[in-house]
Amino acid sequence: MRLLDYECQTTFWEDFSMAERFGTEAIEDTYKRAESEWKNDRVYGTELSMVLNHKCWYWYEKQNETLSRLYAELWEEWHEWVLDNWKSEDLTYYLRVTD
Predict the structure, then answer these.
(1) How far is it, in rounded angstroms, from Cα 28 to Cα 8?
(2) What is the pLDDT of residues 68-79, one digit of tens each?
């Protein structure tokens, strides 16, 4: 996230990094908790999307297909949910920040 000159508002990167030590189920659990707690917060929800996307590419570069694919699936699920459920200013914020 530092490469983007974006100042993180959450601990999502650290939360998912810690979950990775315990495997894919822990990652999925971390995602479910973040999703349920922050789905109506455009700043945190947008950052969740960014972290999922960056984790996907991070693990792709490390040649860990399992984690890369999992993060890609979680990102796609979250992204689709946002596009279907957020409206007006929330959606505009999401699209502007993640563009």
Answers:
(1) 21
(2) 999 999 999 999
3-state secondary structure of 40: coil
Write out the H or E segment, with its range, that includes residue 86.
Answer: none
Under DSSP, the state recorded for 3 is G
Any residues with CB less than 8 A from the CB of 30 and at least 6 apart, and which? 15, 16, 19
For helices 65-85 and 24-38, what crossing angle results, to 10°? 20
- Closest to 76 measured CA to CA, from 96, 60, 53: 53
| Distance in angstroms (rounded) separating the CA atoms of residues 31 and 33 | 5
**Interatomic CA distance for residues 28 and 33, integer angstroms:** 9
Stated pTM of the model: 0.91
Distance CA(24)–CA(70), nearest Å, equals: 8
